[in-house]
Amino acid sequence: MQTKKEEIRNDIIKAATREFLYKGYNKSSLRTIAKKANTTIGNVYNYFENKEAILECIVDGVPEKVNNIINIHDNLTVDESILTKENSKEYMDMMFEELFPLDILLNDAFVILLEGCEGTKFEKYKQEFTKLFSNHVADHLKVDKESFLPKAFSQGAISAFTMIVKNKKSFEEKKHDLREYILTMALGLPVIKK
User: Using an 8 Å Cβ cutoff, are 97 and 113 in contact?
Assistant: First the structure.
């Protein structure tokens, strides 16, 4: 019986994560994952029952963590007097890391879930997240949950997460990009003076 080595398992997970992120779950093959992990497809089966088992390992706990972020935001009380145009940016800068756990939002696994995992138990995650996030935005905006604006904002945020994560920048640069996106969406575009 072959001994399982943690290093090989980690190489398989790393290779699968890259494949799922850039090709999508359905277009990724176990053969390619095995090749990029420098192992055989037979060895992949020593560690994982199938491709979906690898996906489950990669995204383990991410949906719950993201839902927790939204629940924290839903229950957050903010003194709206602090959110004057002059103070908003400073408040957001101060609270940014607490309000937006970047290790989760800028995680490959989160984007893999948002890109779609058709044919798996996660295939409805993007739809569920979009609705949850859209409802959260509607609450912030104090508008009907079925109106256009929260749905459009949610779709834009999903596109932003995806673009930022797939961009091969450092984590610090990704963090900066997401921060700028969120600040612009939350505070609006700056007024251009002539």
Answer: no
- 73 pLDDT above the threshold of 80: no
Q: Are 59 and 122 within 8 A, CB to CB?
A: yes
Helix (H, G, I), strand (E, B) or coil at 194: coil
DSSP one-letter string for 7-75: HHHHHHHHHHHHHHHHH-TTT--HHHHHHHTTS-HHHHHHH-SSHHHHHHHHHTTHHHHHHHHHHHHHT
Q: What is the 3-state secondary structure (H, E, C) of 155-193?
A: HHHHHHHHHHHHCCCCHHHHHHHHHHHHHHHHHCCCCCC
| pTM score, whole prediction | 0.83
Q: How far apart are CA 167 and CA 162, in angstroms?
A: 8
Tens of pLDDT, residues 46-62 = 999 999 999 999 999 99
